[in-house]
Design brief:
The complex is a heterodimer of chains A (309) and B (282).
Chain A: H1 15-23, H2 27-53, E1 56-57, E2 66-67, H3 71-79, H4 81-113, H5 119-127, H6 134-144, H7 151-158, H8 176-187, H9 189-200, H10 204-212, H11 217-228, H12 230-246, H13 249-254, H14 266-276, H15 280-306
Antiparallel strand pairs in A: 1-2
Chain B: H1 14-42, H2 46-52, H3 64-105, H4 111-123, H5 127-139, H6 146-169, H7 174-182, H8 187-198, H9 200-216, H10 219-224, H11 233-243, H12 248-281
Classes of the chains: A mainly alpha (309), B mainly alpha (282).
Chain lengths: 309, 282
Amino acid sequence: MASEKTPTLAPRTSPSAKKSDDSLRFLPWLFLAPSLVIYTIVVVYPMVYSSYLSLFRWDGVAPTKTFVGLDNYGILLTQNDVFWIALKNNAIWLVAALLLPTSIGLGLAILLNSRFRGSHIFRSVFYFPSVLSLAVVGLIWTWIYHPDLGLLNQVLSAMGLKALTRNWLSDPDVALYPVIIAATWNAVGLPMLLYLAGLQTIPEELHEAAMVEGARPSQRFIYITFPLLRETTLVVLAITAINALKAYDIIYAMTNGGPANRTQLLSTWMYFLTYNYNQVGLGTAIAVVLFSLTLIFAIPYIRFMTRKT
Amino acid sequence: MSQQISRNPLRPGKSKTVIFFAALILATLLWLAPVITLILTALKDAGDFAVNGAFSLPKFIRWANFSEAWETGVKNYFWNSVIVTGFKVPIGIVLESMAAFALSHMHFKWADRVFTYILIGLIVPTQMTLVPLTLLMNALNLIDTLTGLTILYIGFGVPFGVLVMRGFFRTLPVAIIEAARIDGCSWFKIFYRIALPLALPAVVSLCILDGVATWNEFILAQIFLRSDELRTLPLGLVQFSTQFSTQYDQLAAAVLISVAPIVLVFLFFQRYFVAGMGGAVK
């Protein structure tokens, strides 16, 4: 910059540096204030207040709340069948999210990492669903699963598998799985992108050396690529898990928790209890459970993000 | 699969190449089947759809689906989304860059702790905030206003924005900032005359990622917007789908209209998606 004006490099104890040290006591807070204030009011304070509300029985309207301690959690665990359905669905969803988008994303990243003609077009194609809103993804896939006119049943019939056709989103035994497939379609892009970035950091020489030593492609994957993608994999798993637990819009757009509450997730059941049944205590208790589940994956992730500082 | 680790899949011989591309193109078609279905449906007459289903070429192209969907309500939803996104993204980025700049270059004792505090926001499920926010917004008379929704979006956007901008600011050479300090440049001036212009690629990335996220947001809009004329697109579309559940042609057209801006942004600014996500992980 304009440093040629000062021929000698000022040491840290120069008057100007001293002055800046003084100003740095409050100035950073001035820069941080707008963000911190709005973030604290909109995110942090409500989070704390929700935890507090989960200790009360309240309909959200009455002027008085009744303190019930941990009773709301007890009610959820012992008397609320849908809570258990939702918890189980969240577990299934989580396992699917940790396996499917991550492995598909890794596979695509490895395929598309090589720069051949048109590779960037394929990357865009497979990333594309990730820019759509989950509400839109839900609507689009609802057509695929339409019992009479949907592509899935049409294809199954055409293949002579008419026995397998069904009303996918109305069948209580299977309805969750079509929704998970639709969510996977949307979720593949991010792992693919992160793995592509991770693959860029692996030096080409390692593969060349291994090839000279006669390593097969599968060996190179197991002993070079995958170990070197360890950090990326940790980030990918944490982010997909956190996102999976946030799933909400796609359920709302595709099944609205039905049939017979069989596709409720903790997130949607929280909404039902709070806003449809006025059970604010139970609703906030579910939110706290959901947040605690998220923390299992989030604490290692946040440690990782702040570790380099 | 791992065969293609080698730099060029065209090398190992012709037949392998053909199989590779055939498989890739097949996978692509399968991957895009939902989108193809959507486009075909939007171009079709309702009767055509009822008889031949979604996955067939239209008998004739019916552009009126788009104008009808637009007039039935999508117009309102669209402009509401434009307003909310148009205010949220620039305001958010200014606030987030200031915070990120303080955290990365104004070495102060609390920087790490403040950054961790902000990161918590990335993992909080929205459900965790809904009830207190409802009470708060009620008290402030902000329920069912686009202003209220925009304020919420700015608050929820802080963690990701600070993460991305901080990731970029940390790559700026400290020497530049120190040189400016020695010349007597104030911190505000360093921020908006030096750091922010240098961070332009990060700002563009964040604009795009944030714009897409805001355009797509659902649950806060669902809780805090009550009247139909204020709905944003994702919310309006789901509403549209329950009201006109059998008019698939119009609904498909409505969905296409709603994703059109996103698709355009994606096509023109793709590399910024990669850059932005990269900044978030570094």
